[in-house]
Design a protein that fits this description.
alpha+beta; globular; 22% strand; ten-stranded mixed beta sheet; eight-stranded mixed beta sheet; 537 residues
């Protein structure tokens, strides 16, 4: 479906069952769930899919080690339930998106003998809570084994280590895969479409005024129910519905820095359970680089938050503390900041103590809002939200929830060793084929076929991404702007800003031919990439 066809579908007279506002993890998950139940669904996103919080995570699929510690120490059932649910959903996500996710072992270094039993028992409990959805067994490592697993660890004072397992994934591509899945089951999905106002009939929300952010055209979409899944921006839509609505969202910032591969082994992550101020720190191999994060500080809500100098210094300081490697700002290849949408608690001393659970509520006028939660539990959050929508709006789905056993786009026919087949079938370089297999799953052949049209060149010599991915993103993955491709369809802007700047004009050139941009539009797209790289993605 072209963008023009998509927008035409959004302008039809017949009302939708649901209008989902927000194209991040939660909104895309809701669209998939509702479409699979046979409901007539529209999803709109003001910017790009996952442009906000959902592409700025630590790339972990996890139950939440930090929440488990709080659950045990404080006998906090809410935190305990959150971990147990997260571990179950971790298993579901790894099963349904095998091309975009994978288990990963983590080493937790221990520098005090007193920490050995506590951390070991805690991670054994983490395994136990996962039950049949477990992905590996934690175990105590000797000092020697810990250094073998993570050679760049600070050896001085190291007593032992604990090995445990969690998952990691490509968050932005996961959101795109969910949007594609929703579309393939009948949902109408449009990014760069903004809700400018809610439409009410007899005091009840009955749709919204929409605006195409790219052209400025406006129209009204009617729906039996409207779901507010806008993450950190949820209060904006709530106050559009009711200007007197009390804000319910608090945000904290999580920043990440990306270093080159020498700072992390290719298949093992590092988890520091308690930094100088009690936070959890991760160092993770991701896309051939080392991802370091994250902070947890109160933050103002903005669309493109910046990493502060203090936050960058905080992460560098801890890398120096735990690594037997020198690291400076010159080693940073990329930095980004994201907002965690937390359900506000006026009595919480700081944002790190807020429970990362989700809350669903319906206003008097019928606006259904879902806030809080985390990426790992997106599917459960969507199921709960659609259940509430069905009950609250009197909808009649043809089926019950189907998402527990439905692969996302690209996952059904994925083969872990599929990259080798792509080399033989399409004559691709091994690293390029491996990337296509992991990024596109059973759709990788379709990208390779685009490459055969004359788009088989690498975008940048240091990375495995090829020009065909740009064309495929435009034709099939909702990409409308150059930054959509560079920051989310490809993760290039998240791992190497210098390389991104170097290829930006070529990306604009390819997209201009696909989308019919004139010279002015092409320059505007290039300027936007430059601006985002300099300020915030």
């Amino acid at each position: 479906m072209t963008r023009q066809e998509t927008l035409a579908a959004l302008k039809q007279d017949e009302p939708f069952d649901l209008l989902v506002v927000g194209g991040g993890a939660t909104g895309c998950g809701i669209a998939v769930d509702a479409a699979l139940r046979g409901l007539k669904v529209a999803l709109v996103e003001k910017n790009d899919l996952a442009e906000g919080t959902s592409s700025r995570s630590t790339k972990l699929v996890h139950g939440g080690v930090r929440y488990l510690e709080k659950a045990v120490k404080r006998l906090d059932k809410a935190q305990y339930d959150l971990v147990r649910e997260g571990l179950h959903e971790r298993g579901v996500l790894l099963k349904n998106a095998p091309h975009l996710s994978n288990p990963i072992p983590f080493v937790t270094p221990l520098y005090k003998w007193l920490d050995v039993p506590m951390v070991t028992i805690g991670l054994k409990l983490y395994d136990l809570l996962a039950g049949k959805m477990g992905i590996g067994h934690s175990r105590l490592l000797s000092r020697k084994k810990a250094l073998q697993r993570f050679p760049m660890l600070q050896a001085k004072g190291l007593k032992a280590g604990v090995l445990y397992y969690d998952g990691q994934f490509n968050d932005a591509r996961m959101a795109v895969a969910l949007a594609m899945t929703a579309r393939e089951h009948g949902a109408v999905v449009a990014n760069h479409v903004e809700v400018t106002d809610l439409v009410k009939e007899s005091g009840h929300v009955a749709g919204a005024r929409l605006k195409d952010s790219l052209t400025g055209s406006e129209w009204t979409l009617r729906a039996r129910g409207v779901v507010n899944a806008t993450g950190p921006f949820g209060d904006r839509l709530r106050q559009m519905d009711d200007p007197a609505a009390t804000p319910i969202i608090t945000a904290s910032s999580g920043i990440h820095i990306v270093l080159d591969e020498r700072f992390a082994p290719p298949e093992t992550g590092l988890m520091i359970p308690k930094t100088e101020d009690g936070r959890v720190l991760f160092v993770i191999p991701w896309q051939g680089h080392a991802l370091v994060g994250t902070t947890d500080d109160p933050a103002e809500i903005s669309e493109h938050p910046r990493a502060t100098e203090d936050e960058v210094d905080y992460l560098l300081r801890h890398v120096r503390k735990y690594f037997d490697l020198s690291v400076t700002r010159d080693d940073i290849k990329a930095t980004w900041s994201g907002l965690r949408p937390l359900v506000a608690d006026p009595e919480a001393a700081d944002t790190s103590n807020l429970v990362r659970d989700h809350v669903i509520s319906m206003s008097e006028a019928g606006l259904l809002t879902i806030v809080g939660g985390k990426w790992t539990s997106y599917r459960r959050m969507a199921e709960d939200t659609v259940d509430q929508a069905v009950a609250g709006y009197g909808l009649e789905p043809a089926l019950a929830c189907q998402t527990n056993d439905t692969p996302v786009a690209g996952g059904a026919g994925y083969l872990p060793d599929g990259g080798a087949r792509l080399v033989g079938a399409h004559g691709l370089a091994a690293d390029v084929a491996a990337n296509l297999n992991r990024a596109y799953g059973d759709r990788a052949d379709a990208v390779a076929e685009v490459a055969a049209e004359g788009f088989d060149s690498r975008l940048h010599p240091d990375h495995p991404y090829i020009e065909a991915e740009i064309v495929y993103a435009v034709r099939h993955e909702f990409a409308e702007r150059a930054i959509d491709v560079l920051a989310r369809r490809l993760p290039l802007a998240l791992i190497d800003k210098a390389a991104t700047a170097a290829v930006a004009r070529r990306v604009v050139e390819i997209m201009a031919k696909e989308l019919g941009w004139d010279e002015a539009r092409g320059q505007a797209e290039y300027d936007l990439v430059t601006e985002r790289l300099a300020v915030a993605l």
